[in-house]
TrEMBL record:
UniProt KW Transmembrane keyword: yes
Name this polypeptide is given: FtsX-like permease family protein
UniProt KW keywords: Cell membrane, Membrane, Transmembrane, Transmembrane helix
Keyword Ribosomal protein: no
Signal peptide interval: none
Main localization category: membrane
GO annotation, cellular component aspect: plasma membrane
Lineage: Bacteria, Pseudomonadati, Bacteroidota, Flavobacteriia, Flavobacteriales
Similarity comment: Belongs to the ABC-4 integral membrane protein family.
GO molecular function: transmembrane transporter activity
Amino acid sequence: MLLYLRLLKESFNFAMNALRNNKLRTFLSLLGVTIGIFSIIAVLAAVDSLDQKIKGDLGDLDKNTVYLLRFPFGPTEVPSWKREQFPNVTYEEFDYLKRSLNGVDKIAFNLFTRNENIKFEDRTVSSVRVTPTTNEFEGIDGIKIEQGRFFNESESNSGTGVIILGFEVCNGLFDSPEQAIGKKVRLYGQRFNVIGVTQKQGFSTFGDSRDNAVFIPMNFIRKLYGENNDMLTPAILIKPEKGIDMEGFKGEITQKLRNFRGLKSSDIDNFFINVLSGFTDMIDEVVSELNIVGWIISGFSLLVGGFGIANIMFVSVKERTNLIGIQKSLGAKNKFILFQFLFEAVILSVIGGIIGLVMVWLIAMVLSKVLDFEFVLSFWNMMLGAGLAGVIGLIAGIIPAISASKLDPVEAIRSGM
């Protein structure tokens, strides 16, 4: 054990001498490993951060939540020209499913519409995402209220002019969430009473975050514009009870909606049942593919880095041929010489890897502050980077180390004279 510790110490000293005595050559050799480790860990950290952000954005949603619309969330065998003929879901269908569908925890009716400007006195916030919905939406979307409350069933059914502001919308109109409650804001040329402000969500991976949205009773918009309006796209959101058989649940939705619409047995479904779990599975596949692509691209950088380490080790063997001969003449075994150069190669490679990790860490810190997006450099990724650097050094140093261990001591001393 003491022998290996001494070997490690001597190899570390040799590696440091190589760095000190041949700074440019060593730097250029280590650059490949540094870039390779930086590339791999940067890609893994970015993908992990994106994955964590997506899961955080969807964390409040039940993965079995159903989105019932006239179009699908993903690929479908129904041609686009046929999908364009499908009718929108209606409030009557929502009301029918709410009364007759079994196994429902919560069901809401949403209207997707264009962004609007919202005003309070002389202040205006532009391009605000308006979400007309029913009161059940709060329990499906997992909206967290910072101040005030969400609108209740009575306000929802009657289409009362009340509004919940997103965090950033509130900041643009008022000095504080507390100040916003009870004030009147203008939207669609109408006055709305502010009854709530949502908690800050931050950057969202799915476009506009909840911070830049407002929520109003859906029936207010129905009374104002009616349902047959091109700027409105209705959707029925259904959160099933825990532990329900999703295939059976989807089958019941299909049967009831087909019956309500009077579809014949030969007619295809003219609606789409989009389940959130299918969407998250698709995201997991994309994240996995991004990881694979990152590994492939970064692998080339590591390959170049390995050649750089091998090059510097061959040079080290050449420069220290005389010293190797003296060590062998004094009784050093081939294994001692082999491990000496292997350790040196690994140490040099790990140094390059650590530089790459530090670069990723610094960039992650800067981007997290600038972009309002938390980049995560996990302990596992750091260990993976250091481990990869060590493996690259081991592979790159094995041939130079073997060639050094097999040198004839007499010839080695003579070549250095």
